[in-house]
Amino acid sequence: MQRLADLAATLPGVDHASFGFTEQGTPSLREALAALRQTNVSDILILPLMLPVEPSFTAWLVKSLRRWQAEDGAPWPSMRIAQGLAESPLLPVLMAELVAGADAATTVPPLEKLTPEGSLVPAQKRRVLVCQGGPCNAAGADLIWGHLRNQQDRQKLRITGDGTMTAKSTCLGPCNLAPVLQVFPEGTYYGGVTEAAIDRIVSEHLLGGVVVEDFAYQPTGRKQVLRR
């Protein structure tokens, strides 16, 4: 990624280039934007370099950027989001060049008889499922997932406390509470999850064993709306 950032920095009209991840990886997009803002830039262009790009990517990224601005409370530079690689007219040209260079492609070695590998049954007692259903994706679930995974790595959650494993999930059910995640073994639902909510769920629930009621939704048998 640093190589791509260095390449982008050489382009006309670009004064500085850096990278950030919308899913797992450091720096996260939010951290990268915060660092750029410290340089007092007046205009930021976000260039999505990923394939495939979800149809709702731009919509949920805009929502997330606006939420970060609201949470920050300080002035932000102007923000723009460029088209993705899939929409670029240069993508077919790039693909044609890769095909033309097939002589340099890596050859897959012949299949050999392999010895089956065993697997350890996980000892971790906690599971966190992050919903990847349509409404949750539209609400920025990928950014929430990335923040959770980064915190899992930073705080060594697999081996800390009861041990925690995380996974993406199909629809968890309460779509109007998006983005949603569920913590086991309690089965606690959390809705309207933000990065700040993740930090509290990690410290208070996963490590402290106490449900974070500010973001928790109990199965009351009646429809519930997202608390603001």
From TrEMBL:
InterPro entries: CbiX-like (IPR002762), Thioredoxin-like_sf (IPR036249)
Gene3D superfamilies in the cross-refs: 3.40.50.1400, Glutaredoxin
Keywords linked to the UniProt accession: Lyase, Metal-binding
Coiled-coil region: none
Pfam family, one: CbiX
Domain of life: Bacteria
Protein name: NAD(P)H-dependent oxidoreductase subunit E
Annotated source species: Aminobacter carboxidus
